[in-house]
Design brief:
The protein has about 150 residues and is mainly α. It folds into two domains: about 35 residues, no CATH class; about 100 residues, no CATH class. The protein contains five helices and two strands; from the N terminus they run ββααααα. Strands 1-2 form a two-stranded antiparallel sheet. β1 and β2 form a beta hairpin. α1 packs antiparallel against α3, α1 runs parallel beside α4 and α3 runs antiparallel to α4. The radius of gyration is 26 Å and the shape is rod-shaped. Bound molecules: zinc ion (2 copies). The site of one zinc ion (ZN) has 8 residues, from loops.
Length: about 150
């Protein structure tokens, strides 16, 4: 890592290379090296990708807020489109989570951890409402009523 490799840096072409970029496999000098074992260019590319994904996460968050507002309305809570929308948002989030873990996108992971509980809560709510599940209290009450009639 520290000693010269006897080759010039493949990015600046000036200094001696001391490492190899993990992504593009080019020989790099200390000046052209960045975090995560990447060269400057690959690191910049990685940041660009992460910023792009964070913009998608912002969209997911905004849509989740819209869904949360709709789910509270009687006429929307049973709408199939709402259910599909929440499901697809959750799927998008899961895919991004997979990518963030694989690429070590720390900022992205943080954002996902903020959004995931909100979206999961909505998903459970819409499935309970639309799946025709009865709440245990209601069933118990009906049973009692039946017994005493
Ligand atoms: Zn260099
Ligand atoms: Zn590189």
């Amino acid at each position: 890592m520290v000693s010269s490799m006897g080759y010039p840096c493949e990015i600046c072409g000036k200094k001696d290379a001391v490492s190899i970029c993990l992504r593009c496999r080019r020989l790099i000098c200390r000046d052209c090296m960045s975090s995560f074992g990447l060269c400057k260019e690959c690191y910049a590319f990685k940041r660009m990708i992460e910023n792009d994904r964070i913009r998608i996460l912002d969209y997911i968050y905004k849509m989740a807020i819209v869904c949360r507002e709709r789910i509270g309305r009687q006429d929307c809570a049973r709408c199939m489109i709402l259910r599909e929308q929440i499901l697809s948002l959750y799927k998008m989030l899961k895919d991004l989570m997979h990518e963030a873990k694989k690429e070590y996108f720390e900022d992205m992971m943080k954002r996902i951890r903020d959004i995931e509980p909100l979206l999961r809560g909505l998903l459970i709510r819409v499935i309970v409402t639309q799946g025709g599940l009865r709440l245990p209290e209601i069933e118990t009450k009906e049973e009692v009523d039946f017994t005493y009639t």
